[in-house]
Each structure stands twice: as C-alpha cells, then as structure tokens.
C-alpha cells in the first residue's frame, strides 16, 4: 500500500498551471495584487489538473493521537494521561480544534494510532460541549487504529520497529482515502500526543541536518533547565541512531512517533489522490519532511497553514520551500492553526471561480 501510494504521486500539471496564470492575468485587479494567493491558486490548479481547481470544501480534519516512551525523560511538564483525556475532549466537541472546525464547517476525525491510556469514549448525556444546533454529521468521530500503545523511549532503543512505522504510515494513507471517498476536498492535519514535540524535533534534525538546538523548541512551554535538557535528549537520540535521511521509514522508526508516521501517510495519501493537505504545526511539518523523503512530488499537495512558534517548524518549512499562510504565534497543535488558514485557501481558489475578467466587466486595462 505504501509503495503503490508513492508510485501514484506525480508532479503538478503544467498546462493547468499555465491556464491559471493566464486567467489570473485577466482578472479585474492589478497583476500580482493578491500576492501569495495567486501562486497558491496556480499550484492548486496544477494539483487538480484543472483550472479553476475545485473549491476546498468540505474540509476534513484528521487528528492522529499517540504517546511517547521519551516522556520518561521528562521533556514535558504534562502527564501522559492528558493525551487520552484530550481525545475525550475532542470527541465531546470541547477543544479549540472543535470550535475552529465548527467555524470552518470542517468534520473532525480522531484516529488513535497509539494512545497509552484507556480512552473514555462514553457519550456525554448532555451532548457535545459547545456544539448546540449541530447535526449528527458534525459529531467528531473516533477511529481506533492502535499500532502499539505508545512508542519506546528513543534515547534507549528505536521508538518503533520498521513494521510498526510502516503500519502507522499505512493507517494515515487509509484515513486519507476514506475521508476523500466521503467527499473531503481538502484534508487538514491534526495531532495530539504529550511529548510529541521531542520526536518532531528529532525528525526535523534528521531530515534537514539542523542540529538539536536549532530544531528543538519549548513545546507546551518548558522552563529553561528543562529546555536545555530537552535539547540534550534530542541530541542523544540522534547520536544513538544516526538516522539516514534517505531512509524515511528508518528515520520514523528510530526517532519518530506513531502520529508523526500516520501524518506522513495522510500527506502521501492526499498527494496520491491529488487532494490538497493543509499542514498545521511542528508535528505536521516534521511528518511532511518524511513524506517528501518518500516522494519528492508530495510537496505539490502541501499547503502550510501557519508558522508554529516552535523553531523547528521554521527550519522544516524552509527545507520544504513552503510559505505559511498565517503567523500568529500559535503552538497548540490539534489542527488549530491550519483551520484558521482554511478561509485563505478558499479565497485563493474562489477568485479563479468568481472574479470577472477585464473583458467581461468592461474595465479598461493599463
Ligand atoms: O503544533 C505545534 O506546533 C505544537 C507546538 C507545541 C505543542 N503542541 C502540542 O502539545 C503537545 C506536545 O507538547 P510537549 O511539550 O508535550 O512536547 C502535543 O499534543 C502537540 O499537539 C503543538
Ligand atoms: C491541554 C493540552 C491541549 C493540547 N492540544 C494539543 N496538545 C495539547 C497539550 C495540552 C497539555
């Protein structure tokens, strides 16, 4: 499944991109006045192989949840149980991602690929928090696709076996296919996993060659001594495994996480179906680096929703050559920054569908 998905990923379609550039030049606005949105609309036309490309509606958020053996190294102040508890919150509709998804009209699917603690998924008799008036279709959905109940501690041994990493990637590919088959026109990445900014930093360092200090951030907000310790943990894991960036499955297995690997699969699955994938924060962009290591053309399907405050996100975005659409200092994850960027993507495409040309509107050109 991984190999066939990689084989299905191809370059952007040049004729559709040329058509989009030519249409942009005829629309009633000064050339280039929509800045980044113009190039985004061209890219999305190339991805869809049509001009105009379809509007990115409806959107589907896929939140992959997993736990991390490296939590034992005290790289985060939060207890591991919070991963399972936040999954319960997503399913009850009470997290920030749910509020933003309701605002964007996006569905929310939570995929348990490796949560260590039991999930409390009993329905709340009072109904989903904050979702008054929503119909059944808007209720967040849980998919149980546990590969293992959390990774191993990457400072001691490989976080995953190659088979486990592959299984998690293939969960992501399967979810991409299911969401697209159900009608999603854009996929939005989400993640939940206490301690997951540590493997994200290690992945970014492994794929870009950045050192541990450049790739590592404060995650949920660690104090100065813990931050220094976290950089050492990332550095120690990299020294132990010396991951080979040309072997993405090996890198994901050595220093990755189950949600990172599943997000890699989601991105590859979207790219293979030529559907855009809106990237959220540092966990998503670390997975995106693995995706381009599998299939360089996968970058054509990626839209960087926002610039996470985590420094590793900027390192990864630079390597991917992606300009984030918004930069608001967010560092929450869950898909929140990407969802806020969704109207920008929609706007970029809507212009190609709806804006009059100089000819049709009788507006004089310079
Ligand atoms: O999306 C981001 O860039 C981001 C930055 C910092 C923290 N997070 C979220 O916070 C959790 C990981 O933080 P930590 O400090 O426990 O590694 C995990 O659930 C992530 O979704 C996410
Ligand atoms: C409360 C909380 C909510 C989150 N959402 C994503 N990561 C998170 C981490 C914590 C700690």
Automatic annotation (TrEMBL):
GO biological process, any: cobalamin biosynthetic process
Enzyme Commission (EC) number: 2.4.2.21
Domain of life of the native organism: Bacteria
Active site as annotated: 334
Reactions listed under catalytic activity: 5,6-dimethylbenzimidazole + nicotinate beta-D-ribonucleotide = alpha-ribazole 5'-phosphate + nicotinate + H(+)
Pfam family, one: DBI_PRT
GO MF: nicotinate-nucleotide-dimethylbenzimidazole phosphoribosyltransferase activity
Pathway noted in the entry: Nucleoside biosynthesis; alpha-ribazole biosynthesis; alpha-ribazole from 5,6-dimethylbenzimidazole: step 1/2
SUPFAM superfamilies found in the cross-reference section: Nicotinate mononucleotide:5,6-dimethylbenzimidazole phosphoribosyltransferase (CobT)
EC category: transferase
Keywords: Cobalamin biosynthesis, Glycosyltransferase, Transferase
Disordered: region residues: 119-140
Function noted in UniProt: Catalyzes the synthesis of alpha-ribazole-5'-phosphate from nicotinate mononucleotide (NAMN) and 5,6-dimethylbenzimidazole (DMB).
Family designation: Belongs to the CobT family.
HAMAP family linked to this entry: CobT
Protein name from the UniProt record: Nicotinate-nucleotide--dimethylbenzimidazole phosphoribosyltransferase
